Amino acid sequence: MSAVYITGIGSISSQKTYDNTEFLKEINTYTDNVISVVNPNYKEYIPPAAARRMAKGIKMGVVASRIALADANIDNVDAIITGTGMGCVRDSEKFVSAIIDNNEQYLTPTSFIQSTHNTVGGQIALGLQCKGYNFTYVHASVSFESALLDAQLQLENDEANTILIGGVDEHGDHTITIHKLINHIKSEKTDSTKILDSKTEGAIFGEGANFFVVSNQKQDSSYAQVIAVQTYNTLAETEVSHAAQLFLEDNNLNIDNIDAIVLGNNGDVKYDTFYNELSSNLFKDTQQVYYKHLCGEFNTASSFGVWLASKVLKTQELPEVVRLNEKSTSNFTTILLYNQYRGENHSFTLLRKC
Questions:
Q1: Is 0.90 topped by the overall pTM?
Q2: pLDDT tens digits for 288-346?
Q3: 15 and 156 in one domain?
Q4: Mean pLDDT rounded to a whole number for the chain
Q5: Would you say residue 58 lies in a domain?
Q6: Predicted pLDDT at 49
Q7: Which of 10, 73, 303, 349 is the most exposed place for a label (fewest CB within 10 A)?
Q8: Helix axes 56-72, 119-128, angle to 10 degrees
Q9: Is the residue at 282 inside a domain?
Q10: Residue 281 sits in the same domain as residue 203
Q11: Residues 203, 96: one domain?
């Protein structure tokens, strides 16, 4: 089977990550429980007339994908695979609100058309005139991993040579209100740099788009090799360590082979214990990394973790702001990522230096 490489990346997040020439040099800190992305100049990528008609999630996805393609120095791909938890939720809210406000009459279809989850992938394909395989996964907090798995299978079996994959989610006012009511979002405003000190339930919610060009052909500009991806719908807290060990054994690795582990800690006192199970036991002597204090929590936040790990493997630099422990590693060859959300949809991703 062919190997799978990440050859281009593009990220729009709550940090200035759309600029690939920098790597978390300047950090934005937040003191709120819901944070938004740092917007690039969308006019540089999308004609203003078209951008006005696009939902925020679409604009983020289109621009992040174009940054990734430019980074890989290619103009088109064989396939586009997108992961999203909520899709273009703002337009969904607009349409539902219009149904209620207008008593189900005189509705314009625009918001409904733009609210479907596959709108982002469709808009990217229209812009590129890509007529190949186009699929969107809506698998909650493993939506991005599902997209990555699909791409990996196609590339390993030489069904495609170059695929664009990504994860994208946006805020919606009504959805945010509901998450606050059920304590999925912290009730108090929290300093984003101190989320691990939080002793309350809920997370700081964010949004963003992270896209990657993956190929079965290694390039000089490649960031990392994708070794394996594994997802679980449910895992007990006591089973996480065993699952991690089995995942490594399946890939002929052990704990000592892992140079860093990237964890999805979000400050939720009730569910960060899953990460603590690994950081306090199996990987207590391993360099530990976290990232959701930079991007917030959302269904495809793990794609930001993959962006971070890819940059670390290529630059061999680990920004101080993402260090979770005091270990000091100078050479990064193999990185393991683990994520879960509220005790469900667990994922392990293994990346290796090219």
A1: yes
A2: 999 999 999 999 999 999 999 999 999 999 999 999 999 988 899 999 999 999 999 99
A3: yes
A4: 95
A5: yes
A6: 87
A7: 73
A8: 50
A9: yes
A10: no
A11: yes
In a domain? residue 221: no
Alpha carbon distance 255, 147 (integer Å): 27
Which pairing describes strands 162-169 and 208-215: parallel, antiparallel, or unpaired? antiparallel
CATH of the domain at 143: 3.40.47.10
Clarify whether residues 206 and 243 are in a common domain: no
Tell me how many domains the chain contains.
Answer: 2
> Does the pLDDT value for residue 138 go beyond 80?
yes
> Would 317 be classed as within a structural domain?
yes
Domain hosting 303: range is: 227-353
pLDDT recorded at residue 216? 97
Confidence of residue 97 (pLDDT cuts 50, 70, 90): confident
